[in-house]
Structure formats: structure tokens, C-alpha cells
Amino acid sequence: MISAVVVAGGKGKRIGRDISKQYIKINEKEILAWTLEVFEKSSEIDEIVLVVPGDDIEFCRKAIVDKYRFAKVRSIVAGGEERQYSVFNGLLSCSGKTEIVVIHDGVRPFINEGLIKRTIEESREFGACAAAVPVKDTIKVVDDKKFIISTPDRKILYAVQTPQTFRYDLILRAHREAMEKNVLSTDDTALVENIGYKVKLTHGDYFNIKITTPEDLIFAEAILRNVK
Ligand SMILES: Nc1ccn([C@@H]2O[C@H](COP(=O)(O)OP(=O)(O)OP(=O)(O)O)[C@@H](O)[C@H]2O)c(=O)n1
Ligand SMILES: C[C@](O)(CO)[C@H](O)COP(=O)(O)O
């Protein structure tokens, strides 16, 4: 069985709006609803575990899950203070039959079914797989006063995205070990790396942006106009 854990338990501070960014509408549909729609339609996905802020559970049930008839959403659970804790809560709520879990940010609405499928196929082979794109800019490593320390070769640099897809037992172990050692990361592949396991990257999509800061809303509208 393949479960999707869609995390939307954040507050969206960097976007500076008075509502959490996952509920901002683009073309009259909430960002979170755009995201869930792709998982609902994907033939690969058997169930969706939706993680939202604890106070929003009833709102999300009515205004998102029931409204758009997302039948695959099996549970809506409360997130934690940090993304990592939200993912962990989602993992604990997956079906007892889950073999593969696809973890995705609720605020990456331009995911597509092909990308979900590709990460699943590679996770079956390698245990852990994440979508990623080659970085387009030259990246600098700097000190705390912003003087450059080094310029890594761009050829070996990738920007990681979600979906990040794992064998269920592996990602659960990685999260449990992180908890035991007080390790905190914004990224699930980092937790798997920390237990000494190799993660495969598969080609992501430059359109698969994470809505993070105000200008991303302008990009999102442009993507919807031109791609969706
Ligand atoms: N405690 C948290 C923090 C984040 N997320 C989710 O993780 C994804 C990526 O996180 P990010 O873009 O950082 O979202 P926020 O934490 O909401 O944003 P900010 O850091 O600007 O407050 C989002 O879908 C967000 O809702 C979550 O489920 N639980
Ligand atoms: C998981 C992630 O989306 C990969 O790009 C990212 O690490 C989330 O991080 P953020 O710090 O919460 O933006």
C-alpha cells in the first residue's frame, strides 16, 4: 500500500499574510486544495494523511476535504511546532499496511502525477528517493559577515524538493533516531542520510515551487495561467 503524507501544519510566517499560506486562493482554489487534487487523482496513491495545525482540523475537513470531495484523505491529524514533528505525526497515522510513503509539502501545488510515480519507482529500488533540480545560480559559501569562503562546483549542486518517497520502515526509523538524538531538520532526506543510508535523487520540476515568500504567489499565478 502507498500512502501520501501531505504536510500543511505550518503558519507561513515568511509570506506575511493574515491567513496561513496553505489556505490562500490561487485562481479561486486554495493552494492546499490544488496540491491534494493531484494526489487524489494519482492512481499510485491509496490513501492520503493530511497534517494541519491542530486548531484547523475541523476547518480543513469542511472547507477543503469535504468541499472538494477528496475521498482518499483517510485522516486529518495535528501537526507539530516544526515540520519534522508534523511529518512524524503523519507517519504514525499511516495505515498499518503502508509499505511506501510519499511525503509532500502542502504548499507545493504544482506537483504532477509523473513526478509522484517516478519517486515511487526509485524508492522501490533504492529505499529513499527525492525530487530535485540542478541549481541554476552559482552558489557561494559565506562566513557570518558574508565574506565568501568558497564556490562549490555547480555541477554537483541540486535543490531538493518534495515529493520525497521512502520505504515506510526506513523513514520511520530515521525519524525515531532523529528524535532520540535531538536532531532537527527541515528535510526528511537529511534524516535518512544521518542514519547512514544513501538517498537517490530523481529529476524534479522547476515548476514544482514551494510557495514561501510573497513573490511566489505571482509566480504561482503565472504557472497556473501557462502550465496547468
Ligand atoms: N510545523 C510545521 C511547519 C511546516 N509545515 C509544512 O511544511 C511545508 C514546508 O514548510 P514551509 O514552507 O517552511 O512552511 P511554513 O512553516 O508554513 O512557512 P514559514 O517558515 O514561512 O512560517 C509547508 O507545507 C508547511 O505547512 C508543517 O507541516 N508543520
Ligand atoms: C522539504 C523541503 O521542501 C525541501 O525543499 C524543504 O526542506 C522544506 O524546508 P522549509 O525550511 O520548511 O522551507
Automatic annotation (TrEMBL):
Keyword Nucleotidyltransferase found: yes
Q: Which InterPro entries match?
A: IspD, IspD/TarI, IspD/TarI_cytidylyltransf_bact, ISPD_synthase_CS, Nucleotide-diphossugar_trans
Kindly state which reaction or reactions the protein catalyses: 2-C-methyl-D-erythritol 4-phosphate + CTP + H(+) = 4-CDP-2-C-methyl-D-erythritol + diphosphate
Q: Name one GO biological process term.
A: isopentenyl diphosphate biosynthetic process, methylerythritol 4-phosphate pathway
Q: In which pathway does it act?
A: Isoprenoid biosynthesis; isopentenyl diphosphate biosynthesis via DXP pathway; isopentenyl diphosphate from 1-deoxy-D-xylulose 5-phosphate: step 2/6
> Where does the entry annotate site (Positions MEP for the nucleophilic attack)?
R154, K210
- What GO molecular function annotations does the UniProt record carry, in alphabetical order? 2-C-methyl-D-erythritol 4-phosphate cytidylyltransferase activity
The signal peptide annotation in the UniProt record is none
Which superkingdom, per the lineage? Bacteria
Pfam families found in the cross-reference section: IspD
NCBIfam families from the entry?
ispD
Task: Name the job this protein performs.
Answer: Catalyzes the formation of 4-diphosphocytidyl-2-C-methyl-D-erythritol from CTP and 2-C-methyl-D-erythritol 4-phosphate (MEP).
Question: PANTHER family, alphabetically?
Answer: 2-C-METHYL-D-ERYTHRITOL 4-PHOSPHATE CYTIDYLYLTRANSFERASE, CHLOROPLASTIC
For this entry, the protein name equals 2-C-methyl-D-erythritol 4-phosphate cytidylyltransferase
Taxonomic placement: Bacteria, Bacillati, Bacillota, Clostridia, Eubacteriales
State the gene name recorded for this protein.
ispD
